[in-house]
Specification:
single chain; alpha/beta; Four Helix Bundle (Hemerythrin (Met), subunit A); 3 domains; flat
Length: 480
């Protein structure tokens, strides 16, 4: 996410931090490079001008240039300005404070991912907020649009309004409201029709549906990869329909970030959600502070903790905490760690969220390493017998050959995995010496995520125990 922009800004600020003192000229030159980076990221020109003027005025101030760490001070000023540009710390979530059924109307052009986003949002409301949700497709123009929502509804276990051929959008909206009231639905999601481009017929249809359903939220779904086109679409809709927020799809593939950085400033509408993948759980609330930190290479530890909390089963965490308190760590524990890493987005996603991991992530990409390495390690462990997984010391040369053949790897790959396990086991014993973990509460307390999930942190900052404290070493593991 925003890799190109993050790399450019990272190079600028690395130079600033590397100097003991800064002159006004140093700051102004850096700001010129920041301006170029933002323009290349397809951020709207008026937004760039306002942003650069604001941070330059603060950065050349006497208190900054004469401070002990002027480079860090400048980075903090840029971070604060980025947060404000993206919407501020008080970006509101969904407003569901109304008598049920609360209507959420999804609008946007064709191809923006509107129908899929509707299903993702329904899944999130059902699973994380315990809401009873009903979805209804009002798209009578695109072939099989209503059937698509029905199929997605079955996948996310959310009811969809039965399809009645020949009905118009306003008639479907009326029927959806009646059905939602009869079924005591908490939230009604209306997936409206899109167009290839903004036209008055589309806008009139949106207004008619809004007049009937009186939505509490009107969310515009736009493709972040289209950059300023996404912002222009948002402006067109804002002028016609009372939008309450924006959902940016395909954020995981957006290396530039122009749409996200311009959207709030140009339209005045907050970005409420970001689509971060094709899976139906790949929808995240948009947090300006976290996004700004990731752009500036500061990491996003809060999101890692949230992903861990969502992916780790409570009983697994308790079992791991008890074993760690005893200094125990066998191949079954390692396998559990690897699977947790996969469920949290894989190595690349986690490296992008860890502070100071930009270079490590680049090294992983250059080495051609991907999440298949996790699958290969899992296959090796799966080729062991239950007794071997519990007691890795049993693995002699003959057993290693059998395991390598069973998992389709080389014997040296098995040895590398065993070495990784040995060093992680040593880390567990160190944790025991420090007092271990006291229940699940230590998962996100003083023990931190590095202690709770040794496959993610611990050792040196950003390092993986068992790999010399550095993620790049993992690229050598099982690399074909």
């Amino acid at each position: 996410m925003f890799d190109a922009l993050s790399d450019r800004l990272g190079n600028v600020f690395d130079r600033l931090r590397g100097r003991g003192a800064l002159s006004e000229q140093d700051v102004r030159e850096a700001m010129r490079e920041v301006r170029i980076a933002l323009l290349e990221a397809d951020v709207a020109l008026p937004v760039v001008r306002r942003f650069i003027d604001e941070i330059t005025e603060k950065a050349v101030g006497h208190n900054v240039l004469r401070s002990v760490t002027p480079g860090q001070q400048v980075v903090k000023i840029v971070n604060d300005a980025l947060v404000e540009m993206l919407g501020g710390d008080d970006t509101p979530g969904l407003d569901l404070n109304a008598a049920p059924p609360v209507v959420i109307m999804m609008v946007g052009l064709q191809g923006s991912g509107k129908t899929t986003t509707t299903a993702k949002l329904a899944k999130m409301l059902r699973e994380k907020q315990g809401k009873k949700v009903l979805m209804a497709s009002l798209d009578v123009n695109r072939p099989a649009a209503q059937e698509q929502l029905k199929v997605l509804g079955e996948q996310v276990e959310v009811a969809t309004l039965p399809i009645v051929l020949g009905q118009q959008p306003t008639e479907i909206a009326t029927r959806a409201l009646q059905s939602a009231k009869l079924q005591a639905i908490d939230v009604l999601l209306l997936d409206t029709a899109g167009r290839l481009h903004v036209d008055q017929q589309l806008m009139d249809e949106m207004k008619a549906v809004a007049g009937i359903s009186v939505p509490k939220e009107v969310l515009l779904v736009v493709d972040s990869l289209t950059g300023q086109d996404a912002v222009n679409v948002a402006q067109s809709f804002t002028a016609q329909v009372p939008l309450t927020g924006v959902v940016l799809t395909r954020m995981d593939g957006d290396a530039r970030g122009g749409a996200a950085l311009s959207m709030r400033a140009v339209t005045g509408k907050p970005i409420k959600f970001a689509g971060t993948g094709e899976k139906l759980d790949a929808l995240e609330p948009f947090h300006p502070g976290r996004v700004a930190s990731r752009i500036l290479g500061m990491g996003d530890i809060v999101s890692i903790v949230e992903k861990a909390a969502a992916s780790i089963q409570e009983e697994d965490a308790e079992r791991m905490a008890q074993r760690m308190a005893k200094g125990q760590f066998d191949m079954n524990d390692l396998r559990q760690q690897l699977r947790q890493m996969q469920s949290m987005g894989g190595l690349g996603a986690l490296a992008g969220m860890l502070p100071g991991m930009k270079k490590a992530k680049a090294a992983m990409q250059q080495s051609g390493m991907d999440d298949k390495v996790l699958l290969r390690m899992d296959a090796i462990i799966g080729s062991m017998t239950p007794r071997e997984r519990a007691k890795p010391d049993l693995l002699n040369a003959k057993r290693k050959i059998r395991i390598a053949n069973g998992s389709g790897v080389q014997v040296q790959d098995v040895n590398k995995l065993l070495k990784m396990h040995q060093e992680m086991e040593r880390a567990m014993k160190q944790i025991k010496k420090m007092g271990g973990l006291k229940g699940l509460g230590a998962l996100f307390g003083k023990g931190g995520i590095g202690a709770a999930m040794p496959g993610l942190g611990g050792g040196q900052p950003g390092g993986l125990p068992g790999l010399g404290g550095g993620v790049p070493d993992l690229s050598k593991l099982l690399k074909k």
